[in-house]
Specification:
The protein is an alpha+beta fold and 231 residues long. It has six helices and eight strands.
């Protein structure tokens, strides 16, 4: 009888679930950029990787197995707040002009994307020079056009699926945009379950006023008929 092998290595499904769960814990919207980055650990040689996405509070970097071993030799689960510090350097583009970003980060999580690709979540801890202002500016430059396009689309009630198709965005990305616009008080949502619709607030007011106007006109037409019956 073959002996069962017990391993702590997560299955592909478990790895994906862990990655998704960790990503959902990030507080701010993420912008996919896929740019090269130099990572300098405190007690190891600098390595290169790719910044997959960026948000106001951190980045996700992706790398191969060799780089992963240099950044996280033990391969063990990283407890919250216990990850090692690294310095990252990468460029962000502003009107085709690169601006260098230098930030000290703390490794937040480590997970497996595939057999040859691994991901690290890095939280921003200390900014150099004007890096903080540049990161904020870059993210706002990316977010605002998306929000404007969604606002325009929501002149009519739309479902999350309709927004996703129109914007060519993933469901979780649509949820983030909707949440931001709701916090700003710019859209309303109504309905339940899969029937939830989202509508620009100004469009909702217009719809309400138009409905009230039609109702008032209808009542005015009914008044003469009512008076005629009473005579």
């Amino acid at each position: 009888m073959a002996k069962a092998i017990v391993t702590n290595t997560p299955t592909k499904h478990e790895q994906t679930s862990l990655h998704d769960a960790l990503e959902r814990r990030r507080k701010y919207p993420r912008i996919v950029i896929d740019v090269p980055v130099i990572i300098k650990p405190e007690k190891a040689t600098a390595v290169t990787a790719i910044v997959h996405d960026i948000s106001i509070d951190g980045i996700q970097v992706r790398c191969d197995r060799g780089t992963t071993k240099q950044l996280h030799p033990t391969g063990k689960f990283i407890k919250e707040g216990k990850g090692s510090l690294v310095e990252v350097e990468f460029d962000l583009q502003f009107n085709a002009q690169p601006e260098k970003i230098t930030i000290t980060c703390q490794i937040y999580y480590f997970t497996v994307i595939s057999k040859t690709e691994f991901a690290f979540g890095l939280l921003f801890r200390k900014y150099s020079d004007k890096s903080a202002a540049l990161v904020d500016r870059f993210i706002m430059d990316q977010i605002i056009p998306v929000e404007d396009k969604v606002r325009t689309f929501l002149e009519e009630p739309r479902s999350q699926k309709e927004i996703s198709t129109y914007m060519n965005m993933q469901g979780n990305e649509v949820v983030e945009v909707i949440d931001r616009l709701q916090v700003k008080g710019e859209i309303i949502s109504f309905g339940e379950g899969h029937d939830v619709k989202h509508l620009k607030l100004s469009a909702a007011f217009t719809t309400i006023f138009n409905t009230l106007e039609r109702l008032e006109q209808r009542l005015e037409r009914l008044e003469p008929a009512k008076d005629g019956k009473g005579k």
